[in-house]
Structures
1.
Amino acid sequence: MSPQPQREELFEKIVNENKKTIFAIARSYAGSDAPDLYQEILLQAWKGLDGFDHRRAKPSTWVYRGVDAGFSAQRQVSAQF
């Protein structure tokens, strides 16, 4: 088995390959607040990166987990105001 790529390199690679899709999802959900949601999605994806096994799952799986977590975090912030 090959070793797990460095965390930062893996994150950068997956984000670069999926950033347009992630932002399009954020824009369709949050409209003018898309940059905030995009940032939250990336934050949640970073937090969940340790659980991503690039040998067993597609990067898109990890991206969509980040999207789900970003939506949840955004809803929690919205509910507070």
Note: Residues 7-80 form a domain with the Rna Polymerase Sigma Factor; Chain: A fold (CATH 1.10.1740).
2.
Amino acid sequence: METGKYNLHIQSGETVNRQFKIISANGDPYDLTGYTIESYVKPDFTSSAAATFTCTSPDTTGGVINLAMTSQSSALLTGSCYYYDVRIKSASTALYPVEGKLIVSPSVTK
């Protein structure tokens, strides 16, 4: 599986919902049955998490992953550029199918 690089653009204070479909090397959806999914947002690769995405899979056999963040959590992101990745993990495997920058624009109208 090749890591997909996706830069996400959000507005500070926005409710965030993004969906990804994970595809295996042979082109089929990656079966996520038995995997846990997590995603952290950090200002750089060595810092503590500034936020997390709530990760779910509405279609585990279809390889679908949803990332969500509440408006309260995204409002706490005060910088303009963060990094995130998505880790899917089983008892024997950890994979990172999605990564990128999270670019946060400040809210002008509140």
Note: The chain has a mean pLDDT of 93.
